[in-house]
Write a structure and sequence with these properties.
This protein has about 475 residues and is α+β, with helices and mostly antiparallel strands. The chain has 2 domains: about 200 residues, outer membrane lipoprotein receptor (LolB), chain A (Clam); about 210 residues, Ribonuclease Z/Hydroxyacylglutathione hydrolase-like (Metallo-beta-lactamase, Chain A, 4-Layer Sandwich), CATH 3.60.15.10. It is built from 9 helices and 26 strands. The protein has an 11-stranded antiparallel beta sheet with strand order 4-3-2-1-13-12-9-8-7-6-5. It has a 7-stranded mixed beta sheet with strand order 14-15-16-17-18-19-20.
């Protein structure tokens, strides 16, 4: 018995000694990298450049890369003492024809884009602060931020792909790993964050072409990736360590804080038809023995607000179908909540394999309703047309051909109400009168309605508002 205790104590001492040796070795590597990169005295850094930005989840079809925009100006400032990070970029949509979503400044030739044109350019400001978990991670994933965080969070040392890798746990749930070159320069930093659709999504930042600026090593090229696809590719021009610029630390409160739970409101559109608004629009259609909802935007929280309003309006009927107009993340981020509710997802057949995959992805960082549910999600593909009817109520789903925004775009038509529900087939720019001309996307939309011989009185936009069909047709050059 005494011998067993002695062995146990010896093993414990050996484990503790190994951990201490490992910590000392990781500390030595961090110190060497901190010295090589000039991190110790770095309180802030500003850098600028140009390159490309890619819009997450806005690809024209699920297997395609995120759409690319040319960045003609990129400025970033990072403060490590506050801490905070601010990016400002000016992008141009110079792909012709434009494919996918994420449209920037309004382009008259297509009818796509934002509210105000700026010579085809759009300025975007993004800010990260420690007030949000993702904001803190973004600061720690900068090359010097990683070394500071690795030292503060007792990183461990290992080998990855022939490189030394430092790993630490951030905020109790995020594993952050950075690899170093033989010159002790941070080469790559990786973690995973929660995405409403992709679950535990890989986030990567790659750094290369380092140069010395006033004793600080900084990369000449930065490539960020989300979900395996690049989202930012910048060639760095100027770098200014410890500059005088300050950051305004401002951030919206995290979900569930400050503003309370998201609530949905509804408006009756016809017999057994309601528009449900929670930021943007969804549509509820009541049939004899079941319910159908068109569009699950955003995330789990928004879908739960819509589902709660559905149950308030029609409390005693099951939710059988969720119609997804297209696979862009802003229009599909809430599908998992509907799958957890037991609804079958109806989407265009080009999107079916994608949804079958994402509905099984793990959500361990931020478990959602589907990850907690015993239900197995179901997806059905829609071809050119599908009609849901009980003999009285009818909902038609039609594929919009030739639309550059998304290859699998569906519209929903209510023949009794003569209302067509559309999402991103064209952009009406609410409040803009008259509609933009010549509008490529609007023309395509109207041509599809004519091809399908739909008797449409009004067009209801998922992004808000509705318009008489006559106004839309006039904008497309129809008499």
């Amino acid at each position: 018995m005494m011998k067993q205790k002695i062995i146990g104590v010896a093993l414990l001492v050996a484990v503790v000694s190994a951990e201490q040796a490992g910590a000392q070795e990781a500390g030595a590597v961090i110190d060497a990298a901190t010295k090589a990169m000039g991190t110790a005295g770095l309180q802030s850094i500003q850098y600028s450049g140009a390159g490309s930005v890619f819009m997450l989840g806005q690809n024209p079809r699920p297997e395609a890369p995120w759409p690319r925009f040319r960045v003609i100006k990129y400025d970033a400032s990072v403060r490590y003492d506050v801490p905070g990070l601010r990016e400002e970029l000016v992008r141009i949509d110079d792909e012709n024809p434009p494919r996918g979503g994420g449209a920037g400044g309004f382009v008259p030739a297509t009818g796509q884009g934002g509210m105000r044109p700026i010579l085809g350019e759009q300025r975007i400001v993004r800010q990260a602060t420690p007030r949000t978990e993702v904001g803190q991670l973004q600061i720690w994933m900068t090359p010097h931020g990683f070394l500071k965080a690795a030292a503060a969070n007792k990183a461990t040392l290992a080998q990855a792909g022939g490189r030394r890798a430092l790993t630490f746990t951030a905020l109790g749930k995020y594993t952050v790993t950075g690899t170093l070159t033989d010159q002790n320069l941070v080469e790559r930093v990786e973690t995973r964050i929660d995405n409403p659709l992709l679950g535990d999504m890989v986030v990567e930042s790659a750094y290369s072409e380092y140069r010395d600026v006033g004793g600080v090593k900084f990369p000449g090229r930065i490539v960020d990736r989300l979900g395996g696809h690049p989202t930012l590719d910048i060639t760095v021009g100027s770098v200014r360590p410890n500059g005088a610029a300050t950051l305004e630390i401002a951030a919206a409160p995290p979900a569930g804080e400050g503003g309370g739970a998201l609530k949905a409101t509804s408006e009756r559109l016809g017999s057994g038809v309601w528009v449900i608004t929670a930021g943007l629009n969804s549509v509820l259609v009541e049939f004899t023995d079941h319910l159908v909802v068109v569009e699950a935007l955003g995330n789990d929280a928004r879908s739960h607000a819509v589902i709660a309003e559905v149950k308030r309006l029609v409390p005693n009927k099951p939710l059988r179908y969720l119609v997804n107009t297209h696979a862009h993340f802003d229009h599909s981020g809430g599908v998992r909540a509907f799958a957890a509710e037991g609804a079958t997802i109806l989407t265009h057949e080009v999107n079916k394999p994608f949804f079958e995959k994402v509905l099984t992805l793990p959500h361990r960082i931020n478990p959602d309703s589907l990850s907690k549910s015993p239900r197995k999600a179901a997806v059905e593909g829609v071809g050119a047309r599908r009609v849901l009817t009980d003999g009285t109520q009818t909902l038609e789903l039609h594929h919009i051909r030739g639309n550059l925004h998304n290859d699998g775009l569906l519209v929903a038509y209510l023949p009794r109400e003569r209302v067509l529900v559309q999402a991103d087939a064209f952009h009406p720019r609410p409040g803009a009168k008259p509609y933009p001309t010549p509008p490529q996307f609007t023309v395509n939309f109207v041509e599809n309605i004519e091809r399908l011989k739909l008797d449409v009185a009004r067009v209801l936009h998922i992004h808000g508002g509705n318009d008489p069909m006559a106004v839309v047709a006039k904008a497309a050059g129809r008499p």
